[in-house]
Amino acid sequence: MGDGDKSPPTPQHHPPPPAAHHHPKIPDPKHAGGDHHHHDDSDRDDDTQLHRQRHHHAAIAKGVAIFLLLLGLAALITWLVYRPELPQFTVSAVSIYALNVTTATVPPLLSASLQVTVLLRNPNKRVSIHYDRLSARVTYRDHPITPATPLPPLRQRTRSLVSAAPTLGAQAVPVAAEVASGLAADEAFGVLGLRVVVAGTVRWKAGAIKTSRKRMTAACDVVVGYRGGAPGQVPMLSAPRCRVDV
């Protein structure tokens, strides 16, 4: 090349500007984990409320248990102080107005009409006795020969004796053949064994305290002299034996 030729100018390379340094943003410790603390506070409040509810329920259960314990203790003390005894029953008189057996039917029919005088004694010093839903019937060899007859309710004071003289029967009842034959044989012999049954509910009352109703059955076995004939009171050949079950 000649001197006249000029070389193209060499481009100048400038170094790039230094890169800007980005520093990571440090979270403010006052705000760091703000949501986490919010959840912790909410959970803590729920736990506190649940603990209070459990404590409240436990206190109620404890109070109910103490009340029932005191109530049972009071009932036990009352029972030990008053010691209610069972009523005592006996039969003082029996009248037979009819005792007829019809064997023409199967089974035989028995038509009986009797009046029994029952004495009830309350042996308790401080406790009265209340009888409800009472009924009376007569059986022979464990077979009823009269239907159950309702009796009025009775309130018996302490250390008292009351009597009831219901008329039972007058309605034919079916009986087994052995009952009909046995009754005819005993009547011919002149000795008749009967059982007077009084059933119902009983409860004891001492002041304002009443017991719950209990099912009661009183059974009195009597032996009377009977050969038929004129209706009326029949002699009792032995002292009645009575048993009271509650």
From TrEMBL:
GO CC terms = plasma membrane; plasmodesma
Recall the taxonomic lineage recorded for the source organism: Eukaryota, Viridiplantae, Streptophyta, Embryophyta, Tracheophyta
What are the subcellular locations of this protein?
Membrane
Q: What is its main location?
A: membrane
Name the Gene Ontology biological process terms: defense response to other organism
Q: What is the protein's name according to its record?
A: Late embryogenesis abundant protein LEA-2 subgroup domain-containing protein
TM region positions: 59-82, 94-120
For whether the record's keyword set contains Transmembrane, the answer is: yes
